[in-house]
Every structure is written in C-alpha cells, then in structure tokens.
Amino acid sequence: MRLLLVEDEQRLAETIARGLGLEGFVVVIASTGPDGLWRATEESFDVIVLDIMLPGMSGYQVLRALRARDVRTPVLMLTAKDGDHEEVDALDMGADDYLTKPFSFIVLIARLRALLRRNAPQQHPILSAGDLRLDPARRTVHRGDVELTLTPREFGLLEYLLRNKGTVLTKLEILRNVWDAHYDGPENVVEVYVGYLRRKIDTPFGCASIETRRGVGYLLADEDRPANRLGSRTTNLAPP
C-alpha cells in the first residue's frame, strides 16, 4: 500500500513513516502543502495522511484543491487543534476521516485500514495469478484453498508483483515501490525477499511463478507454471 504523509514536523513524520513501514505501507513524505499537493496529483497513492497546519498551503487548501481536481484518494486529516468546528470543516471539504494530535499509533493504523476497506470495491480488487490470490483490503493471501502467512514486507512485494504480473520489474523499481521512495541500501535485499516469497508461495506447491531475468529483474507469471516444466529455462531457475 502506498501512502502519502504530508507533515511538516520532521521527527513526527519520520516516526509515523517508520511505524507504517513495519505495517507494510510504502510511505512517501511531503513537508509542505504545495509539495503534498503536487505529489498527490502526480503520483498514485492508496491513502493520504494530511496535516492541517502546513507551510505554503494549509491542509484545508490542499484538500480543497485535490477534490477540485477530482483526486478521490481517501484522506485522513491530522491536526493539533481539538474542536468540532475543525472536524466539520475537514469533513465538509471532502476528508474521509480525522484524527487529533496527540494520537495512538494503533488507532491511526485502525483508521487507515478502515479507509482502505471502505474503498476496497473501487480501488482494491482481488489480485490473482493462476490459483494464487491476494486481497489487498483484507490483507490475505491464498494458494488454492490454503491461506498463506506473509510478513508485511513479503505481502507488499507480492502485491507489487501481482499488480504488474507479466512485466519484468527491476530491483530499483521494486525498492522504490515496496521499500521506500528514498531507499539507499543494498539492492540485494530484493533477492533475499524474493527467496523468502518463493519458499512460501511456490516451493510447497511445486510452482515457479516468480521468474528471474538475469541482469534485469523479476517477473511474476500470468498463470501457474509447475517448477518441473521450467527445467530448460535456466534464466528462470537462478536462486533469488
């Protein structure tokens, strides 16, 4: 899940982003109103967390501009203010939810999950390849009738591969969309997690749905491919 966090308090933004990352969100941070508006209109996000008090443009102005441009991404607004009028203003302008600082992180997660579920029919259809199915809203994965248990990072990786099935994705593309837009660590972390994922979604079922394209990246096949049928395709049998 890609989330845009528009928050000018750097320490708070970093803390929120770190916690959301552990819950499987890919967080992009904007620290001003204009930057948040630009990112929200130029990039694709599943949900936006928007502070009201921002430099350059207030959260109200950003929200009003987004809705005027028909950006329908769910928005949860944050504010240090505490009063019915602020909440009413935010909701009247098109916000989907509202949270007052200071807030509990588990409450923030619960509110975000609720927003994503609420928008699931329009924005989060079941993703599938063969008998592999992923439900983004309920955060469940099945191979046939078997429910699989994935870590948040593994879930995010599989979701990204499924959303782009049949397309070869580079390690850099995966890092930017599953880890962090500004991730600058080693690229081989992708290989490690592809290996983890294969051992959960493929190996126990005799499948080889994630292909390795040497020197390029990874591809999730559009349909199930038994591992023993890929014997001659050495480029796809390389370890993760």
What does the model show?
The structure is a single chain. The chain is of the alpha/beta class. It folds into two domains: 2-121, Response regulator (Rossmann fold), CATH 3.40.50.2300; 127-236, Arc Repressor Mutant, subunit A. 40% of the residues lie in helices and 20% in strands. It is built from nine helices and twelve strands. α2 runs parallel beside α3 (59-68) and α7 crosses α9. The radius of gyration is 20 Å and the shape is elongated.
Overall tally of structural domains: 2
* Distance linking N and C termini: 24 Å
Averaged pLDDT, please? 84
The name of the CATH architecture of the largest domain is 3-Layer(aba) Sandwich
What is the CATH third-level topology name of the largest domain? Rossmann fold
Spell out the helices and strands N to C.
EHEHEHEHEHHEEEEHEHHEE
Strand content: 15-25%
CATH homologous superfamily designation of the largest domain? Response regulator
Number of helices: 9
